[in-house]
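Incident review: delayed structure delivery

Summary: a single-chain prediction request sat in the queue longer than the usual turnaround. Root cause was a stuck worker, restarted by the on-call engineer. No data loss occurred. The affected request and its eventual output are reproduced below so the record is complete for anyone auditing the incident later.

Affected input:
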Amino acid sequence: MMHDPPLRDYDLLKSLEVFASVADTGSMTAAAGRLRITQSAISQQIKILELDYGAPLFYRDVRPLRLTPAGLVLLNRAHALLTNAREMRTDVRQAAAGKLQHLRIAILSTFARQLAPAIVQASKSKQLAVDNLTITRGMALNHALDLANRDIDVAWTSDSFIEAPHVERLTLVRETYLLVTPRGYGRFSSDLRDLASRLPLLRYSMRTQSGMRIESHLRRLRLGFAGSPIFEASIDLVDAIACGHGWSIVTPSQLFDVLGRNIEIDARPLPGVRLTRTLGLVWRNGEMQDTMQVLAALCETTLREESVPRLLAEMPELAGHFEVLSPAKD
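Output delivered after worker restart:
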């Protein structure tokens, strides 16, 4: 059986708006009044859709008009498409005016308490020109997928994106991994094997970027420690160290959440080869350039003027191991 080819020369969004109005009101007359066009124009738009989709959309022998199964499917899709079109129009206009409707930020958990309050305040004061703000916590390994899927707009994350071609990055922090032990065990830190013979290594999960980086570092040193307890959250790992359950390798920022608790730990440089990482903002290539500059400056100021002084006041031995950088595009 031959079928007519789909129509190409009509305004789909306009026709869907008419269709949705008829479905909502149950009457072509009522829809015409709502949209301020003639009833014949309404009828013509519905016929165009029915011809293009090859199915009746309404049962016309009942009042009010009732959707056919095909009409029900189209209505569900039409509402979503019309909503997206309206939001797109608003987003484009606001972007042209230098303002975003919605900014979704994912922040590494260890930095969330440091950065989130300042970001919220900047949004309220309009320093950060966004209407709506969503802040979520997350791990670096999730951020690439979330950005690609447009589940987030920007991530404060570690340097796991350094080779990704579809993102831009501003580096704002460089920090050194440290050996962290229960207080009083520092005298054994010159030899990790000796330390491991006295206390177990507490590891980060391999689901974390730090877990993979530390494991790679230990393999390079030809060190293997079997049967190690595994953690995903830094605060849980550091608490376990303070309770005397083991030692670990962490960064200064991974100690942020225990500041102010007078926790019983010692931190010092790793023996031998240094292990470092960088952190910063990552977003999709070519988007939100002005907003990212404002956000980067805000993060830099917050870390430099609030986080670093607080960190060094409680743990002065960390001087030089956590460095805030002026925003540098990679």
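Verification: The first strand starts at residue 58 and ends at 59.
Action items: add queue-age alerting; document worker restart procedure.
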